[in-house]
User: Which sequence fits this backbone?
């Protein structure tokens, strides 16, 4: 066990040499180092959003699990908030507001960080829209990029700027900043755009959930805009064989993607990308960039 003081908070770090990504030799200590290195750009995207963690205490080759509830032994200085659930019930969830909390979570082997499209205290009032583009084999992220560009054009037509990031898994996310709007209205608008894309590109796009329809196509998951749903946060690690990261990308990179490996980034790639690009998703955090839904919501 190692004790460290970060921003006045004492954090106990344990089993830092445990290989959480055995195929890459990427240890828990490396996870802590990675999240420390990206905290400046990551934390603004987490601020005031309840976080759901995907934890893999014994590494990505063993069992992992989604954890929404506040774990026992959580330090008193970690921000915890009440969040409503379906049926009117409430749960207590962690809100990652600072570097000590981020590193405390990393020590829990919370590799993945997932957040809703809204911020507390305005539950259910989305300040961003997201499309999760999921390729059905043999389609890959290359086909996702073509779909992303079509969605960008549709959003631009409606006066909404958009930005992209890899999912860190197989697909791509397209996001647009919004003036806060009811999540149900946002999900309805996103569904309409997904249907429009599917009608325009029937050989490439599917907007229906059944997996049997997805072979060789890109499924546009618009449902993550519902107030109960979450999406992998920018810069989060993913529970994959390698320490891949949900990485913001430029539209030029999206347009230039010719091979699946062109848009695969691991933790070791992020320092140079941040030096070169900064945070391509920074406009999502700027209220002046936010647009209205076309119906004025």
Assistant:
């Amino acid at each position: 066990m190692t004790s460290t003081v970060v921003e006045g908070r004492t954090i106990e770090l344990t089993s830092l040499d445990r290989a959480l990504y055995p195929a890459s030799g990427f240890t828990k200590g490396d996870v802590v180092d990675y999240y420390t290195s990206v905290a400046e750009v990551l934390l603004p995207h987490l601020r005031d959003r309840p976080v759901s963690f995907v934890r893999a205490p014994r590494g990505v080759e063993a069992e992992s699990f989604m954890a929404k509830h506040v774990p026992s032994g959580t330090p008193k200085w970690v921000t915890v908030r009440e969040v409503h659930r379906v049926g009117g019930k409430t749960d207590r969830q962690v809100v990652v507001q600072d570097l000590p909390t981020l590193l405390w979570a990393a020590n829990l082997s919370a590799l993945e960080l997932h957040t809703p499209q809204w911020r507390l205290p305005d539950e259910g009032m989305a300040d961003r829209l997201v499309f999760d583009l999921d390729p059905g084999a043999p389609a890959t992220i290359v086909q996702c990029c073509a779909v992303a560009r079509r969605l960008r054009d549709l959003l631009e037509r409606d006066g909404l700027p958009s930005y992209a990031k890899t999912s860190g898994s197989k697909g791509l996310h397209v996001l647009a900043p919004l003036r806060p709007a009811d999540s149900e209205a946002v999900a309805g608008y996103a569904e309409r755009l997904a249907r429009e894309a599917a009608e325009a590109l029937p050989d490439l796009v599917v907007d229906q959930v059944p997996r049997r329809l997805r072979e060789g196509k890109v499924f546009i998951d618009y449902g993550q805009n519902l107030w109960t749903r979450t999406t992998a946060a920018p810069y989060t690690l993913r529970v994959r064989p390698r320490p891949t990261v949900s990485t913001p990308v430029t539209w030029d990179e999206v347009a230039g993607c010719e091979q699946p490996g062109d848009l695969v980034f691991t933790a070791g790639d992020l320092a140079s990308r941040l030096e070169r690009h900064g945070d391509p998703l920074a406009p999502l955090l700027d209220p002046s960039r936010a647009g209205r839904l076309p119906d004025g919501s």
User: Anything to note?
Assistant: The chain has a mean pLDDT of 95. Residues 195 and 207 are 6 Å apart (CA to CA). The helical segments are 28-46, 99-107, 141-157, 183-200, 251-255, 270-277.
